[in-house]
Amino acid sequence: MNYRISTNMMYQQSISTMLAKQAKLAHTQQQLASGQRLVTAKDDPVAAGTAVGLDRAVAELERFGQNANAVQNRLGLQENALTRVGDAMARINELVIQANNAAMGDDSRHAISTELKAIHAGLLDLANSTDGAGRYLFGGTSDGSAPFALSGGGVIYSGDQTQRQVEVAPDMFVSDTLPGSDVFLRLRTGDGRIDGAPTSGNTGTGLLMGFSITDSTVWNGGTYTLSFGAGNTYQVTDAGGNPVTSGTYAKGESIAFAGVQMKIDGQPANGDSFTLGPSGSRDIFATVQGLIDTLDTSPTTDAQRAAMQNSLQGAMRDIGTAQGRMIDARASGGAQLSAIETAASLREANNITLKDTLSGLRDLDWAEAIGRYQMENTALQAAQTVFMQMQQLSLFKLMG
Fold first, then answer.
1. Which of 15, 156, 257, 323 is 20 to 30 A from 269 via CA?
2. Three-state DSSP class for 160?
3. 197: Cα separation from own chain's centroid
4. How far is CA 209 from its chain centroid?
């Protein structure tokens, strides 16, 4: 069998060889120019696929960081608002103590009432604080409009009860700002566990100075009524009207029953009574408004003055409990801010690990690439030299 090698075939083979080497050299040049090993997915399909997944993980970490920045801003603004609310509570407490002075006249109490009205308006403004982006801090997830508004002499809440959860790191969530119902509305009265008050219509000067739980194992959470009779006698009955204890009242003494005690001062009249039972709840706006209404009155009798003093004593207890709630709310926000810092450390560590892995997949090994470039360049030059020499080959040069 005879094989014929044509000049055309030799030319084609040489050209194909040079083009292939030029392509490899161009690819290496592109790697060197970009600093990337993976110029296209076909360079290493497995590594390219893995890198795409890691890119998504890095982008997700960036999104978590944006979430964290947004909620951190809102929690910081919540802290500022609650600090100012706490300052307002402290000022209200000072004003109530001043107003509770028996020597204070009507004009002075009315002046205090005027300041309380300004504080009431300020509290409403704080409750409607925004995050600077048009969203309200204390509206829960319904934060597109002001959550609190005056209505019928009181304040209504149009937000919801939901506290948004925000993911700030993989599988790590923090709570957004508290809903306003938890901060301003559902505030426990009394000392937070029990609450007492004089019955409306008392005609004596009896004052409820305080109360407390003395034995939690005996206290059953019921409601009791302390009633006074003739000759300073008293009787305590439960919610069903059943007698619990009785005795003779001595001014300033504590009357103990059912695991609790009440301290009464002044002189209750025959038929006067006081109640004691589990704490209820009241919004801070109603508490302040109640103070304003009390101070706007002008008592003329001892019984009216005693009623005013009892109201002020009750307000001081409610304000004290409200101050404790504000401290708890600030502590809750502080815990979330601390969690955000922890999440930032976790994101940073994960980001470094992911980028190191990406670098190993994509980044060019410069020493290897430069050496490969020199070899490919030399190979291309050799192919070009061979081609040039092949062009000079001719049978006519052998004749003669």
1. 257
2. coil
3. 36
4. 38
Q: State the pairing for strand pair 187-188/281-282.
A: antiparallel
66 touches 168 (CB < 8 A): no
Judge: domain 54-189+318-351, CATH 1.20.1330.10. yes
State pLDDT tens for residues 371-389: 665 676 676 566 566 666 6
Q: Which helix (H) or strand (E) holds 208?
A: strand 207-213
Contact 376, 27 (CB under 8 A): no
| pLDDT tens, residue by residue, 190-225 | 999 999 999 988 999 999 999 999 999 999 999 999
Q: Which amino acid would we find at residue 318? A: D
pLDDT digits (tens, 9 = 90+) for 116-161: 999 999 999 999 999 988 899 999 999 999 999 999 889 999 999 9
Residues 237 and 139: their CA atoms lie apart, in Å, by 43
Cβ burial, residue 7 (10 Å; 0-12/13-18/19+) = exposed
Residue with structure tokens 């005056």? 150
- The crossing angle, in degrees rounded to 10, of helices 7-34 and 366-391 is 160
For helices 45-99 and 284-295, give the axis angle rounded to 10 degrees: 20
**Cα–Cα distances in angstroms (integers) from residue 48 to residues 43, 139, 362, in the given order:** 8, 46, 8
Structure tokens at 4: 């014929």
Domain residue ranges of the chain, discontinuous segments joined by +:
54-189+318-351, 200-278
Measured CA to CA, the distance from residue 348 to residue 164 in angstroms comes to 24
Runs of H (alpha helix) within the chain: 7-34, 45-99, 106-127, 180, 284-295, 302-362, 366-391
Q: Can you read off the two tokens belonging to residue 181? A: 């119902």
- How far apart, in whole angstroms, are the C-alpha atoms of residue 282 and residue 291? 13
C-alpha 117/C-alpha 22 separation (Å) is 86
293 to 88, 139, 198: CA distances (angstroms): 18, 28, 17
- Going by the DSSP 8-state scheme, the letter that residue 142 receives in this structure is -
In whole angstroms, what is the distance from residue 92 CA to residue 290 CA? 12
pTM, entire model: 0.76
Q: Provide the 3-class DSSP secondary structure of residue 36.
A: strand
pLDDT single digits (tens) 7-58: 566 566 666 666 666 666 566 666 556 656 655 555 556 665 676 677 788 8
Query: Euclidean distance between the first and final Cα of the chain, in Å?
Result: 31
